[in-house]
Amino acid sequence: MPYESDDEGSEYGLSEKQFKRLSEFIYSQCGIMMPPSKKTMLTARIQKRLRVLGLRSFAEYVDWVLDPGSSDDELINFIDIVTTNKTDFFREPSHFEYLVQNVLPELIRVEGAGVRRPLTIWSAGCSTGEEPYTLAMVLQEFAERSPGINFTAQILATDISTRVLSKAQNAVYEMEKVQTIPLAMKRKYLLKSKDPMKKLVRFTPELRGMVRFRRLNFMDHDFGLREKMDVVFCRNVVIYFDRPTQEKLVNKFCRYMLPGAYLFMGHSETLNNLRVPVVQVAPTIYRLPK
What we know:
Layout: H1 16-30, H2 39-53, H3 58-66, H4 72-82, H5 93-111, E1 119-124, H6 130-144, E2 153-159, H7 162-170, E3 172-174, H8 183-189, E4 190-192, E5 200-203, H9 205-208, E6 211-215, E7 229-234, H10 243-255, E8 257-265, E9 279-282, E10 285-287
């Protein structure tokens, strides 16, 4: 039964018209581009929601999500299913080496960050928590290797998806997921499940206490952050946005960065030719001038 050209939709898949409506909505709400190549992926993910909700047709679901009078609950679920959340512990390890060897000593020496006041780090687009917990381990190790100073840090972790934030706050991971964490850190910061049949670990309360999570949509005009940041990690996030949106977003980040703060981008991302106030200090690492 053909359905690709059926603008009324069916129980089998999204019509071209429905996909266009949803892709325009996703761009307006999240800034994320949804090219035609993503139609099959989006159809499959919505199909799962149809089964959960007991709906028969894609048309019914699309009308529900796009109805301004509908509850925000399903809108949040819809955003959850369309956002990509792939991440690993110690992903792009050279960034953490640069943070420890260059950024932290500089911010301590010049700004007193971490000594006279807590160092503030923002994991923007934190997904299921691998990045902020990696940062927590790195900062804790740095503090222990820095005798004579009482180094403290606070980590803010944000994401648009309530689903991944819930997993991140729980801080429970499968054993195979933590294989990239060095053995000494695993022994220090991870607790095994009391049930030996479950191959699960959880971060210690002390490490979990270093991170606070909150939902944040990059398309919001005001992020509502109370403090300004010494360091921002926003890696492998802006790649999903078009260049004008990337430029707007980086400028927003800069509003919440202290003079001299650092911005870490993903290795597949570049700020070249964007009108942004940061300057590059290393590959994919930028700094806001004082």
